[in-house]
Each structure stands twice: as C-alpha cells, then as structure tokens.
Design a protein that fits this description.
This protein is an alpha+beta fold and 213 residues long. It has one helix spanning 2-33, and strands at 43-58, 70-84, 87-102, 107-122, 130-145, 151-165, 167-168, 173-186, 196-212. It has two domains: 1-35; 43-212, Porin. It has an eight-stranded antiparallel barrel. β2 (70-84) and β3 (87-102) form a beta hairpin. The longest helix has 32 residues, at 2-33. The chain is elongated, with a radius of gyration of 29 Å.
C-alpha cells in the first residue's frame, strides 16, 4: 500500500511538472526566436555630404543650353520614420555651397542652392539595401557678395530624384552611398530673362542612425 501511494504521488508530480516545463520552454522559445523580419524599422536620422555639380539657365536662353558645371561641396541632414521594410518617409534639408572670387568686380562671392523637402525612400527588395529616392519642397538660390550689392536670392520650388544603397555597419548604423539630381525653379515670368532653372547633381555618402521604434 505504501509503495502504491508513493507511485501515485510520483505520477501526479510528473503530470504537474510536464505542462509547466512545456509552458516554460514555449515562453523561452518565444523570447529567443522572435525577431524583426527586416533591418529597416522605426525612427531614423541621416547626415551626409559629397560633391555637387551645378548648372543653371533662364527661360530666355536658347532651349537646352546650360551654364558650365560648377563643382562644390554638398551637405544634407534628414530624419523620419519607417512605414514598412519597403518605405522610409521623412524631411530633408540640403545645401550646395560654392565660394569663388569674381575677377571682374574683384570681390568674393558665395553661391548657394538650399532646399527643405519631404522625401521618400522606396526599397524594391525587402532584404536588400537598394533604394530609390524622391523629394518635393521649397528651395532658395542665392549669392552672398562681399562688396556692393550685399546678399541676393530668390525662393522657388524644387524636386529631387536619386538612387542609393544602405550597407549595414552595426546594429543601428548604416552607410548609404547615393547619387541624386535636384531641380530648382524660381523667378518672374514677366522679367526679360524669365524664370531661373538650376540643377545640382550630387554624388556622396551618408550615415544613417536607426535608434529604434
């Protein structure tokens, strides 16, 4: 009788422990196995720079004619959120800065083309870093003259298109080489020269920090 009682107690203990162990194992597997389906998620911040080649023309110029390329540094900063692994949305500020000396009038000139845009980056493949970039916003073309005339400039509209690739450097850090082309348009259609059309082709690299959700 005593042996039978011990056997029953042992069987009951085993039956009670098995479900508990199974539940514990299930919980542990859940904690260990659950992971993100993609490297892209949450809030992101990006800064970058590169070389920019600028050209301009006016409506009054012969069709298809542009000024000679002016190469100068281009910088940008952007931030936003990740809608899903295929799409990042955000805002971006960028500027192209060209400092030169006007030999005819003998003074220094700083030419700038800056913009503030709403941007989107589309990733065709979920598990690849390739992306297509587009943007739309306001822009300003100006000159800061160290001499008579001071600062001049005009505000207009701009749009941007580009292509890049995200390379993962760490858990929350990506290197993003890219190429983009931004168009700016501003001015007065009734002026003799018409509207100003300006464009900057940029080849550069950015660092994207993705702190999380």
């Amino acid at each position: 009788m005593r042996n039978t009682t011990k056997a029953l107690i042992t069987i009951v203990a085993i039956l009670l422990l098995v479900p508990s162990s199974a539940l514990l194992a299930q919980r542990r597997r859940g904690l260990v196995d659950v992971s993100r389906d993609s490297e892209r998620y949450g809030f992101w911040l990006s800064v970058g720079g590169g070389a920019g080649w600028e050209r301009f023309r006016f409506d009054a110029d012969p069709p298809g004619t542009w000024s000679e390329d002016q190469a100068a540094p281009s910088l940008w900063i952007a931030l936003g959120g990740t809608v899903n692994p295929h799409l990042r949305l955000g805002g971006e500020a960028n500027v192209w800065v060209h400092e030169h000396f006007d030999e005819i009038n003998q003074y220094n000139v700083t030419s700038t083309l800056s913009s503030a845009m709403l941007t989107g980056q589309f990733y065709p493949a979920r598990n690849l870093g390739l992306f297509l970039k587009g943007g739309l916003g306001i822009s300003r073309s100006g000159e800061d003259i160290e001499g008579p005339g001071g600062s001049v400039g005009e505000t207009g509209f701009a749009f941007l298109g580009g292509v890049g690739y995200e390379i993962k450097l760490g858990r929350n850090l990506f290197l993003s080489p890219l190429a983009s082309l931004m168009f700016h348009s501003s001015g007065d259609r009734d002026a003799p020269e018409g509207n100003l059309h300006e464009r900057v082709f940029v080849v550069g690299v950015g660092l994207t920090f993705q702190p999380g959700r």
